Amino acid sequence: MKPKFLIIILICFILTAGNSAFKSLEVQAEGQVSWPQIGANLVVGGFELPVHITHAGDGSDRLFVVEQRGRIRIVLNNTIQTTFLDISDRVRSPLSGGGTEEGLLSVAFPPGFGSTKSHFYVYYTRKNGDNRVSRFYLSSNPNLADADSEQVILKLPHPTYENHNGGQLAFGPDGYLYIATGDGGGGGDPKDNAQNPGVLQGKMLRIDVELTRKQTSSEVEHIYLPLIPNNSAFPPPGQAYRIPGDNPFLGESGYRGEIWALGLRNPWRFSFDRLSGDLYIGDVGQGTWEEVDFQPAASTGGEIMAGISWRERIVTTAVHATTVVLSCLSSLTAPMLRAVQ
Fold it and tell me: Residue 3: is its pLDDT beyond 90?
């Protein structure tokens, strides 16, 4: 028997944080939605726990497949060519006694990679369970990264649970690095991290790791080593990243300036629309619930997601979910889509 799905679509018109207007459309009857037919064709095999695939934007036609154990493999012409990076010696994954959601989780290449730049970024779980964003450099071989070239960009403590690590990295149309972090794990966000503006867990972060964009006269950017503030206007050698001056919570008391949006549970994957620049976030749900969040390209950030990561708002029926969402619209950004099986 085919499983029945209840889809609640919430179309969000986001103006500013705390001042949002929404319309909702609830689709309940099976058969009302014409779903596309999706099939699978084997292109290349031989991977070990692949979790992410991307390209470098360098015109080489190479695909980079991230394996959870700590390797990145290069695929060209539908064939695995070589191992691009192997940091399995420092990665905690299911193959080294870690949890099923831990490991090397994504890779991102900056604009200009292959021409003016020879570095890239990864998100991974360390042996002690904490997560880390790091920069690595190519060796003299463009198909081989130097595993000893690691520069730590951001440290993300994850001390208690093995799940909800987030893990996606991607450069936005604005040239900044976006980082999706999980709420720290445990059912129902027991630490209340997602809605806590003073921690980086359960958030979408936005930082400047390339340090190349020219400041406007109205911007004041704060420069950081991992978790260590520095008030200099320009980064001296060795600085890891800076916080863009137009980040929504920069300078606000009690808020980490890196935060672009908060209230997420486990935003395992997100993507920017290549035509519009809109942002879609796949936030892993609890139990039978799943969620997709939407942020238009014109957003200035600061959305507080009313997702199921909000522990006080976890519900089990569509009726209750709709009631909760509608009661919170004055201050929270509802997801564009929720699905329950």
Answer: no
